[in-house]
Amino acid sequence: MGRDVIVACDFPGKEEVLRFLDRFPEEKPYVKIGMELFYAEGPAIVREIKARGHRIFLDLKLHDIPNTVKSAMAVLSRLDVDMVNLHAAGTAAMMTAALEGLTRPDGTRPLLIAVTQLTSTSEERMRGELLIDRPLDEVVMAYAKNAAQAGLDGVVCSPLEAAKVHDACGSAFLTVTPGVRFADSDVGDQARVTTPERAREIGSDYIVVGRPITRAEDPVAAYRRCVREFVG
Ligand code: C5P
């Protein structure tokens, strides 16, 4: 599987996201659609962006009882997206059910990626509120292994964890990594960041890049720079 840059299209509505995508004269970037845009515009925005020739990572982070997740995944597979995700905390039973639901009658399915612990959850909160009494990185790696054993395709993680995930789960297990910034750009609210070039060296399979591209003065130039540094 080739490395690629996924553009996090965190826009409030259809008009803004299509205006952004219209700026690309040739390329069809891989697009991440998150909760904000999906809840605002519904499945129609997914169909519209797909019809324009983009691949789509639908970032809805499902987490519910296995039967509900299975049915929801069946609906998402019919939307013809390329990648979807769920919370590994939903257990192996939920992940297995998700895979079943996602698989189309012809045997094909979108890639299924697990979120381990959200990067917004600190070890202190995990211990104090979730009552998980283990080091955070141990929990992240255990959840990644659960996802791999359940047959998922990869995890969302920090680029800094990508090598460790590959060591534990195999090199074919995908690492999808946000928290990417150019060496000379603003870090914003991301605490631990990596450049596209460094993410490639550590072994990320996909980098998810939002504001460094979407808020750039010249988004097309920023996207091209990202591809150049990450894909080569
Ligand atoms: O704008 P920026 O490059 O920080 O966007 C990163 C994208 O990746 C956002 O859509 C954010 O929600 C998502 N993300 C993240 N960290 C995670 C999981 C997802 O930044 N741990």
Write the SSE topology.
Layout: E1 4-8, H1 14-21, E2 30-34, H2 35-41, H3 43-51, E3 56-62, H4 66-78, E4 83-87, H5 91-102, E5 111-115, H6 123-128, H7 136-149, E6 154-156, H8 162-169, E7 174-177, H9 196-202, E8 206-209, H10 211-214, H11 219-230
Parallel strand pairs: 1-2, 1-8, 2-3, 3-4, 4-5, 5-6, 6-7, 7-8
Helix pairs in contact: 4-5, 7-8, 9-11
Bound molecules: cytidine-5'-monophosphate.
Cytidine-5'-monophosphate (C5P) is lined by residues 8, 10, 34, 118-119, 156, 178-179, 190, 208-212.
Q: Over the alpha carbons, how many angstroms does the gyration radius reach?
A: 17 Å
Percent of residues in helices comes to 40-55%
The major sheet is characterized as: 8 strands, parallel, barrel
Ligands bound, unique: cytidine-5'-monophosphate
Question: How many strand segments?
Answer: 8
Category by helix and strand content: alpha/beta
Given the C-alpha coordinates, what overall shape results? globular
Please give the order of strands in the largest beta sheet: 1-2-3-4-5-6-7-8
Q: Give the SSE order as H and E letters.
A: EHEHHEHEHEHHEHEHEHH
Beginning-to-end CA distance, first to last residue: 15 Å
**Whole-number average pLDDT?**
95
Number of helices: 11
Structural write-up:
The protein is an alpha/beta fold and 232 residues long. 43% of the residues lie in helices and 16% in strands. It has eleven helices and eight strands. The protein has an eight-stranded parallel β-barrel, surrounded by seven helices. Helix 1 links the parallel strand 1 (4-8) and strand 2. Helix 4 runs parallel beside helix 5 (91-102), helix 7 crosses helix 8 (162-169) and helix 9 (196-202) packs parallel to helix 11 (219-230). The longest helix has 14 residues, at 136-149. The protein is globular and about 45 Å long.
